[in-house]
Amino acid sequence: MKLFDVYPLYDIELVKAQGSRVWDKYGQEYVDLYGGHAVISIGHSHPYYVAKMTEQISRIGFYSNSIIISGQQELAEKLGRVSGYSDYTLFLTNSGAESNENALKLASFHTGRKKVVAFSKAFHGRTAGAVAVTDNRSIVAPINSTEHVTFLPFNQVDGLKEGITEEHAAVIVEGIQGVGGIQVASDTFLKALRARCDETGSQLILDSVQCGYGRSGQFFSHQFAGIHPDMMTTAKGMGNGFPMGGVLIAPHIKASYGLLGTTFGGNHLACAAGIAVLDVIEKENLIQNAAETGDYLIEHLHGISGVKEVRGRGLMIGIELEDAVGPIRDALLFKEHIFCGYAGKHTLRLLPSLAMDKALADRFLTSLQTVLTK
Ligand code: PLP
Fold first, then answer.
1. Using the 8-state DSSP alphabet, how is residue 77 labeled?
2. Ligand 1: centre distance to CA 123 (Å)
């Protein structure tokens, strides 16, 4: 059987990884500033994470949500404390799309409403509800296309009063748009969304799948604006490569048996991964490191010729280039041996491990300069 061919691939096979470095099967070393789509939060194969996962799988790897899995409670308590949301509850899922799917569902259950507001250039995932609130018609199948979703302009306060009404179950927004090109939601915009949701009873969902878990230099990027959403969705960095996600749910939204469910979400191994990630984030001060290394990178990127604009916060950085991004990303990968991401035609996207240090930042800055001056 062949694979269903949906991914354009680089001809590289990675066989080893450690921290912010990966090696291919020929022994070539690369610097990883992309973390496989923002997934590697604490660094590849972190020894504490490996030990925790190994110990867990040697005892029990999985059982369903019909028995007590004490790791779930431990994870929820740690996540509440580290994120500053101890009074919220946690529903565990397996991916970002599934987290958004459940958040949208909860908003609809809670309000009894069907309509949702999303924003231009939003990306929320590929499952039915998540893709319906994603602003990319080319990935929405006819079965997922719905008249219940309205897209408003991102970061524009004018029009929110008319656009968000008592008919809307939810407003879903990324604190920093990732796939949309690293566009930071302004504090004013997020505050205006909070205020309009309070007026209409619509539930405010902050999709923090890419910009959450410390990446921005705060646990959640919306914390710069000082707002409290009704729900936050997470995944990616939460498991440092183990597939897991979650919805953090404000206390006014009540649970009942059977309301939500999943076979795999919150299994023993996922909890071990999630706990190990939070332990390392705390012990190694990774959120502060993301803020400091991010500031350093952003400051120095501004001086490089060929760089038109630098956007982002912490270690979620978009570098808008004067030239097309494709050849520059390829040169970084094949000549300088650095993995980066991209968004659109001109933006390089950096989503490294939160443990990235200044020495690696310098290495990237030199390489980018080299590539841009050729
Ligand atoms: N939400 C955001 C902001 C994302 O960036 C992504 C993935 O890139 C998703 C949701 C979907 O996550 P997943 O691929 O884990 O379903």
1. H
2. 7
* Whether residue 207 has its Cβ less than 6 Å from ligand 1: yes
Report angle CA 74, 77, 82 to the nearest 5 degrees.
Answer: 120
Q: Indicate which residue's Cα is closest to atom 7 of ligand 1.
A: 125
The answer to whether 343 and 349 have CB atoms below 8 angstroms apart is yes
φ, ψ of residue 259 in degrees (nearest 5) = -60, -45
The DSSP result for 238-284, as a single string, is GTTTS--EEEEE-TTSPP-TTSS--SSTT-HHHHHHHHHHHHHHHHT
> Considering Cα of 120, then 220, then 239, then 50, what sign does the dihedral take?
positive
Q: Give the three-state DSSP class for 8.
A: coil
List domains and CATH numbers for the chain. Answer: 14-46+285-373 (3.90.1150.10), 47-283 (3.40.640.10)
Kindly report, residue by residue over 305-339, the tens digit of the pLDDT. 999 999 999 999 999 999 999 999 999 999 999 99
